[in-house]
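Take a look at the protein record below and tell me what you see:
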Amino acid sequence: MKKNNYLLMTVLGLLLLVLAACGGDEATDGNSEETKSNDFLSLATGGTQGTYYALGGTFADLISDETGIKTTAEVSQASAANANALKAGDAEIAFLQTDIAYYAKNGELMFEGQAVEDLVAIGGLYPETIHLVTTSKSGITSFDDLKGKKVSVGAPGSGTYANAEQLLEVHGLTMDDIQAQNLDFGESTDGLNTGQIDAAFITAGYPTAAVEALGATADVVIVPVEADKAEALIEKYPYYAVDTIPSGTYGLTSEVPTVSVLAMIAVKSDLSEDVAYGIAKAIYGNAGEISHPKGEFIKTETALDGIGIDVHPGAQKYFDEQ
């Protein structure tokens, strides 16, 4: 009888080991974080009237086709929110400004004490032009004219807010010198159209839909950033570059000097090398298929220019092969 009990216990023990092994395989195959991340990719863009969103749908389709992973472009509050979405795992890919990526990686400004330490780049895209937008009715033609006026500066902690603060700074102004309004791009141009605000900072690749929409109903004015102020800005904040909005854009009758940062695509370092490689190949290998005007700036040979954070090894591998 004891012998039979011993044999029964041995058989049960072996059975439990087999079941445990099978269970382990099932967890690895169907429920691991790596597998989940490969089932679906979320691409955080920006507001519906900005350039990020306009490009996001195209990028999502290209990435889906190249990697075989369903990728969806999601509306968001743009750069700063996108970095936090990556950190929280709410997105796998994100549009960012290069200045915001630098702050996020190093825990500076709006990311103080909350660094996104595993943030890495896929590559740079195109200049993100800082527009200080108003209308001819406002009478505003210079930064000095902003004193006491209602000015949209974007959400606190956003990339646009940081750009506005730094441009005001080099012109001898602060947020206390204006009536700051925290509006998104669409709200800003609606406010300009109705006269509820006087001017708005908008950081986006030109032409951006929100300003084009304003141009359909009002005479758009872009306040210039003169050369000496641009030089002072770049000296203190070297991730800026001199830029120009061409004549004819938004109905402008002459080109307007301004400054820009760079738009980029970022992910986290734990994204698999194969997926990161596929994302880079999808975007830069198919740039000629991008119909948006900013597509002409998206080039393999300049993809790593101006990137202030590490590049994902998978993306680096793609660029090294070209």
Remarks:
- Confidence is low (pLDDT under 50) at residues 1-37.
- The longest helix spans residues 2-30.
- The longest strand covers residues 119-135.
